[in-house]
Design brief:
about 100 residues; alpha+beta; Arylsulfatase, C-terminal domain; four-stranded antiparallel beta sheet; two-stranded antiparallel sheet; 1 helix; disordered N terminus
């Protein structure tokens, strides 16, 4: 059974990182009743932005603290990157 109603992700807050090499922002995301804090945006050495959800140490590696269906995860990642770019542009505008 499929549902016509989709959960819409919403970035509630983005804080730009200061004095960090690769982590450029932290975001808080709300999906329905679930609030996810600590979603991080990292910039790779080639300039590409990546979104990482909170994780925890599990044995020799790391495991995600929250799992989302692939389609929803892609939407959330796109929303977080968009919110980061908007926050960064606003910050640059106020600096000028």
């Amino acid at each position: 059974m499929t549902s016509d109603v989709k959960e819409k992700s919403c970035v509630e807050a983005v804080s730009l990182a200061v004095d960090m090499d690769r982590r450029v922002a932290l975001a808080t995301v709300r999906i329905g009743d679930v609030l996810i804090k600590g979603v991080s945006v990292w910039r790779s050495t080639n300039g590409r932005l990546r979104v990482y959800f909170p994780s925890y140490k599990l044995g020799a590696g790391w495991d995600d603290a929250i799992y989302l269906p692939e389609e929803l995860r892609s939407e959330v990642e796109a929303d977080v990157i968009s919110a980061y770019k908007t926050a960064k542009a606003a910050a640059q505008k106020t600096d000028e």
